[in-house]
Amino acid sequence: MASAPIPSAASGALAHKPLSVVLITLNAAAQLRPCLESAAFADEILVVDSGSSDGTQELAAACGARVLHQDWLGFGPQKHFAVTQAAHDWVLCLDADERVTPELAAAIGAAQASGSDVAAFRFARCNRFLGRYLRHGEGYPDWSLRLFDRRRARWSDDAVHEKVVANGPVGTLAGDLLHDSAETIAAYLAKQNRYTTLAAEAAVAAGQRARAGKVWASPLLRFVKFFIVRRGYRDGLPGFIHIVIGCFNSFTKYAKMIELQRAASASSPVSSTTQASRDSHA
Fold first, then answer.
1. pLDDT tens figures, 49-67
2. In whole angstroms, what is the distance from residue 233 CA to residue 136 CA?
3. Does residue 6 carry a pLDDT above 60?
4. SS3 for 233?
5. Is the distance from CB of 173 to CB of 111 less than 8 angstroms?
6. Spatial separation of the C-alpha atoms in residues 213 and 100, rounded to whole Å
7. SS3 91
């Protein structure tokens, strides 16, 4: 995916293009208001909720958002559905625990008023973990492609680790998207456990294989990359904990893949026949 510079404001190909900010939510009332307030520069805010019981839908409507309901489809399909419901072709996709900084909002405004053939824009995301915004290692810049023309880009269908796939050049904007998660370590680990299960299932379904070497080498190489090469040590104890959890996630994904592979092998007709043959000669 090619990276393009921020276009100049000369030609006006994107001039005055309206923008929809799009979110998917579920029980996000505790975090939603600051997110919506940070996106007030948009021409439309659309919230697609999958069945909140904490007043998320009412809060979103009170903040001026258009609210729709859609039963959960999986992360990628849910976000793609939400984008298709937006009023405008240019969309900015946010999560409820994210905030658009003034610097990023200004860069988005400049991009809207400029001329270019870019299909999408990426920008840095700064993650808050254990009360500290991480500026190194795995936590930053965490490039996020979230602003795009839905006619030339779309969300992937991945159930987890979904991403925007652009059919055209991708530009880079200044400014940060703040990820202000208020999760406890227990909640964060529970989410990572779900994510690694989905990632393992998707990898095995795609024909990927996990071997013993991956189980030990992947987390080790990940630690060297993010803690040493990308200086995650400069984020102190929160940075160290964040990277170690990421390494364990890598270990867990491959361990789960091996479990799935062995279960599939044990249930295959060949394995059953082999076992029956062994039993007959016992």
1. 999 999 999 999 999 999 9
2. 8
3. no
4. helix
5. yes
6. 41
7. strand
Helix axes 185-205, 236-267, angle to 10 degrees: 40
**Three-state SS sequence of 105-128:** HHHHHHHHCCCCCCCEEEEEEEEE
Largest CA distance in the chain: 82
> Which residue from 74, 82, 63 is spatially nearest to 20, judged by alpha carbons?
82
Q: Which of 128, 56, 119 is nearest to 99 (CA)?
A: 128
Q: Which residues contact 215 (CB under 8 A, 6 or more apart)?
A: 251, 254, 255, 258
Which tokens is 175 given?
Answer: 């400014």
pLDDT tens profile 226-241: 999 999 999 999 999 9
pLDDT of residue 170: 96
Give SS3 for 193.
Answer: helix
Cβ proximity of 141 and 172 under 8 Å: no
Residue 81's Cβ-count burial label (10 Å; 0-12, 13-18, 19+) is middle
The letter for the amino acid at 145 is L
Q: What is the pLDDT of residue 252?
A: 96
Full-prediction pTM beyond 0.90?
no
Cross-strand pairs, 21: 45, 92
The verdict on whether omega for the bond into residue 34 sits within 30 degrees of 0, i.e. cis, is: no
Hey, which residues does 66 pair with through a beta bridge?
Answer: 46
- 8 or 109, which is more confident? 109
- 9 CB-near residues (< 8 Å, 6+ apart): 110, 113, 114, 115
What is the Cα–Cα distance from 30 to 182, expressed in whole angstroms? 9
- Residue 230 and residue 223: Cα distance in Å, rounded? 10
